[in-house]
Amino acid sequence: MSDPALRRVLNAAVPFAVRLRRTFRGVDVREGLLIKGPSGWGEFAPFDDYVDKAASRWLDCALEAAFGSWPVSRRSAVRVNAIVPAVSPDVAALLTRQAINDHGCSTIKVKVGGALADDEARVASVRDALDTSLGRGIGRIRIDANGAWDVATAKASLRRLAEYGLEYVEQPCREVEQIIEVRGSCSVPIAVDETLRTSDDAQALARQADLISRMADFAIVKPAPLGGIEACLRIVEALPVPVVVSSSLDTSVGLAVAVNLAGILGLEIACGLGTGALFEEDLVSSPEPPVDGMLTVRRVAPDLASLLQARDRVSDERAAWWRQRLTAAWYAESEQRWTEIIGASA
C-alpha cells in the first residue's frame, strides 16, 4: 500500500460487531469499523448492499468525525422519536409505553410496509398506548414504509392508516413519480428518505426545488449515507422543505454525529434518533438513553472494554472484508478530499 493517508486510517480502524435486541430491517448484528483521529472517533458501517461509491459517503462521514471539525451546535439537546419495528401489536404497545414512561418520548415512528392488516393493528396499538398514557391527541405517530408500497397499495394503506392521526409517512414508494402521485391523492404529509440518500448527487437533487416540493412535505437527512455534517448542511440549505435528522442504525459513536447535526441545525421537531433502544450491546458500557424525550448533543468515544468485546466478536475473515471495503470506498470517492487533511494532521 503506497498511500500513507489510507495506511494511517486503516491502522486507526478497529472492527466491531454488536447485537440488536431484535431483527431490524433484516439486520440482527451491526458490524463496521471505528476510526480514531485527532478530532475523535468516526464510525464506518455502510450496510452490506451499498456499492463502493455509496459506501464512500459513509467513509466521508467517519473521517470528518475523526479528522475534521463541525460547526458549534445551537442546542444542548435535541428531541427524538422512539422506533417501533415490524412487531406484533402487543409488543408495539409495550415498546410505546416504555418509550413514554422510561424516556419521555411522545413521538413514535412505526415501521410498516407488510400486510395492511398487520400494519394497521400495529399502528392502532401504538395510538392506543399513546392516548392512554399521554391523553388523546398529544402523542404523534410517524410511519415508515421504506419504499415498500406501489401506488395502489400506498393509497389504500394511507386511507386506512390516516384514521390514527399521522404526522407523516416516510418514503411510501420507491420512485419519484410514484411518490408525487400518492401525495396528490392523500391527506397524509410525505417525507422522503431513500429518494435523497440513495441519489448519486443528493445536493443537486435538493436544488430541484419544484420537484422536491411536488414530492414531499419533509426531507429525512442522515449524515452517514449523505457524507457527514458538512455535506448535510449544504443539502439542507438547498432543500425547499423542512428536514428531520435521522440515524442509520448507528452505535452510540455514530449516533452522536446525527445528534450533533440536529443540534447544529437547531431543530425543534423530534428527530429519528431514538435507535439506541434497538441495541442489545453497544460500544459504550452505559449508552445515554433519551431523558424527557431528548438526547444530549456531544461527541461519544467508545469504552475500551466494550470496544475490545465488540472487536473480538468479528472473525478474521470479516475484519479483512471490512478493511478491504474501506479501501475500496477510499479509492471510489474519498481519497482526493482526505489525503491532504489526514496527512497534515499526522
Written description of the protein model:
With 346 residues, the protein is an alpha/beta fold. It folds into two domains: 106 residues, Enolase-like, N-terminal domain (Enolase-like, domain 1, 2-Layer Sandwich), CATH 3.30.390.10; 220 residues, Enolase-like C-terminal domain (TIM Barrel, Alpha-Beta Barrel). Helices cover 46% and strands 20% of the residues. Strands 4, 5, 6, 7, 8, 9, 10, 11 and 12 form a nine-stranded mixed sheet that branches. A three-stranded antiparallel sheet has the order 1-2-3. Strand 1 and strand 2 form a beta hairpin.
* Overall residue-averaged pLDDT value: 95
Characterize the main sheet: 9 strands, mixed
- CATH class descriptor of the largest domain: Alpha Beta
SSE series: HEEEHEHEHEHEHEHHHEHHEHEEHH
Radius of gyration: 20 Å
Task: Outline the low-pLDDT stretches.
Answer: none
Going by helix content, strand content and strand pairing, the class is: alpha/beta
Outline type? globular
Q: How many discrete structural domains?
A: 2
Discrete helix count: 14
User: How much of the residues is beta strand, in percent?
Assistant: 15-25%
Overall strand count: 12
Q: What's the CATH H-level homologous superfamily of the largest domain?
A: Enolase-like C-terminal domain
Report the span from N to C terminus: 18 Å
Percentage of residues in helical conformation = 40-55%
CATH topology of the largest domain: TIM Barrel
* CATH architecture tag of the largest domain: Alpha-Beta Barrel
